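sry for the spam today, last one i promise. struct tokens for design, 159 residues
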């Protein structure tokens, strides 16, 4: 069985797969009479001709070590995940290699941070650690097939 270690999440390490959703060191501007920082356009919603929709997903937790066996991708649009709770979670991703997932990487996403996955990036299912979690999800709805799932030989993810 292949085994991979969880990596810390950085914008540079995650860049091949999408964007990290967290406030910048300095806001782009102040709004609401100076009471609110705006960290503008942290990511772009790829819609591939569809509409951008907002949903809430509730996911069961996993514990480490975790054996990842299911990946999916969305070829027509991006998909953003922002946790609504205070717990860290895992983002398991892989590049697309001619319609198949490449080598998996697992990132520990810290508290209060989300990710926006680019269109066509293979990724594991939502993986909160140790307790169920809710996520605000922004993705695409519309014509065309925008979900592909694949079962893979187990990849063990360890701390």
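last one done:
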């Amino acid at each position: 069985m292949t085994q991979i270690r969880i990596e810390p999440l950085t914008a540079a390490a995650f860049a091949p797969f999408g964007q990290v959703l967290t406030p910048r060191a300095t806001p782009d501007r102040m709004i609401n009479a100076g009471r609110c920082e705006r960290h503008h356009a942290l990511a772009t919603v790829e819609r591939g001709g569809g509409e951008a929709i907002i949903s809430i997903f509730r996911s069961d937790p996993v514990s480490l070590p975790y054996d990842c066996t299911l990946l999916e991708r969305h070829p027509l649009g991006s998909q953003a995940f922002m946790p609504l709770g205070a717990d860290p979670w895992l983002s398991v991703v892989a590049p697309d290699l001619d319609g198949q997932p490449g080598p998996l990487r697992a990132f520990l996403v810290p508290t209060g941070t989300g990710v926006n996955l680019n269109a066509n990036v293979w990724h594991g299912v939502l993986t909160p650690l140790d307790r169920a979690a809710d996520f605000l999800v922004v993705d695409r709805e519309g014509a065309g097939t925008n979900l592909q799932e694949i079962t893979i030989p187990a990849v063990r993810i360890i701390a």
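The CA atoms of residues 54 and 130 lie 25 Å apart. ok im logging off now
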